[in-house]
Specification:
The protein is an alpha/beta fold. It has 15 helices and 16 strands. It binds FE3-S4 cluster. The site of FE3-S4 cluster has 13 residues, from strand 12.
């Protein structure tokens, strides 16, 4: 190993890349990673096996982002590791399928340019924020370092899959894909993955995914430091995803240790205990509950899995009503392909709009004053910032709302 200019240890191979021997694009990408690592105090880099690239929607990154990605692609560089990609600004099969959104030809062209550049570098265009459901990710060995953007996916990777990743921004996940490296810091180090504080719920019975979203908000507001919070809760896959997404949206947390889900040993006796009372969750749910008739009901942030879609379909079975696109679910193209005919049939017959490749948050969706009800705290958090009136509604509450709608 050789010592870098500012003090980070670099291998001979890394020195060579920085010197431009593998082209300017790889040198530039590695230089950025080294600089960020040095500013954080990282002593060296670590090889990664996979990158999940976020920040790919034209709505979010605009012309500058498009040009940055294109400049790397035009250099002819290829990704050094397998890379999946977050959702984009519209459904690839039907760009006009997103309601309350104007998507013109120019927007579509710019978004396609971004995809063309990513594809040229070797990205797998999964266009989903749930890379953890794809076989190319679930086959990665526990304990492996990866570099992921998209906070809900980062939390899932660390908490459930036992992969090691920090919360990377879009550009850093791109640079990591190009170089196959990231800085050895944060959650790549074992000692930072050990919980120190346990959050104890006085009553955890019968909580739904929207309750868990609120719990995520509460923990994100009080938890400090990089080490993960510890929790002993029983939650199904839908609640797990909504909880992790809420933790990521409302704060900086990148991992949580959930008893029975997260691998590794914890000395429970050494954990400091903090109580969380159910009445706090209930009063926040009340505050965020539906006050006016929603214009739209939304599920699928993070992208809905096969389970969610089956549960939604079973709720809809109880009614003969059609919703004419007023219930929207966003998911991955892969999940749509895996859905059984029966579930698809029920959703279609009830006028549910199933949209792939995108979501309400990363598309140009909505206007000030539009009323949306969703089971996703994360969507509530981001869509509210656009002036959209968002309320929380769990899937199990859907039947009651439908009756009054
Ligand atoms: Fe995914 Fe969009 Fe939510 S990218 S986590 S569905 S904000």
């Amino acid at each position: 190993m050789v010592l870098g200019v500012e003090g980070m240890y670099l291998t001979k191979e890394e020195e060579r890349i920085l010197g431009g021997e593998e082209g300017w694009a790889k040198a530039k990408a590695l230089e950025v990673i080294v600089k960020v690592g040095e500013s954080l105090g990282a002593e060296r880099l670590v090889n990664i096996e996979h990158a999940h690239i976020s920040g790919v929607s034209y709505r979010n990154i605009g012309r500058h982002g498009e040009e940055l990605i294109k400049s790397f692609a035009d250099s002819g560089v290829r990704f050094s590791v397998k890379a999946t990609v977050n959702p984009i600004g519209f459904d690839l099969e039907d760009p006009s399928s997103m309601p309350y959104a104007t998507i013109d030809e120019g927007y579509v062209r710019h978004q396609y340019n971004i995809l063309t550049s990513l594809k040229a570098m070797g990205a797998d265009l999964t266009l989903s924020c749930t890379p953890y459901y794809f076989p190319q990710v679930t086959s990665i060995k526990e304990g492996t370092s990866v570099a992921w953007g998209e906070s809900n996916a980062v939390l899932y990777a660390n908490t459930v899959l036992g992969l090691k990743t920090n919360r990377e921004g879009g550009p850093m996940s791109l640079m990591a894909a190009i170089t196959g490296k990231t800085y050895y810091y944060g959650l790549h180090l074992e000692e930072n993955r050990v919980p120190r504080v346990e959050y104890v719920l006085d009553n955890k019975s019968n909580m739904d995914e929207a309750d868990y979203g609120v719990l995520g908000e509460i923990i994100a507001s009080i938890h400090e430091g990089i080490n993960p919070p510890y929790l002993d809760v029983d939650l199904d896959e839908i609640s797990l995803r909504e909880f992790l997404a809420a933790l990521g949206a409302a704060g900086n947390i990148a991992m949580v240790y959930i008893n029975g889900i997260t691998r590794g040993r914890v000395k429970k006796g050494e954990l400091k205990k903090e109580m969380i009372y159910r009445k706090e969750i209930e009063s926040r749910r009340e505050e965020l509950g539906i006050k006016e008739r929603p214009d739209l009901i939304y599920f699928g942030c993070p992208h809905a899995g096969v389970d969610d879609l089956r549960v939604i379909a079973s709720q809809l079975k109880a009614t003969k009503r059609k919703f004419d696109g007023k219930i929207v679910v966003t998911t991955s193209r892969d999940t749509i392909a895996r859905l059984g005919k029966e579930t698809i049939g029920i959703l279609r017959n009830h006028g549910v709009r199933l949209i792939g490749d995108t979501c309400l948050v990363v598309s140009p969706f909505g206007y000030k004053g539009l009323r949306v009800a969703t089971n996703s705290y994360k969507s509530l958090y981001y869509l509210s910032k656009r002036g959209i009136k968002v309320s929380l509604l769990s899937i199990r509450e859907l039947k009651d709302v439908i009756e009054k709608w």
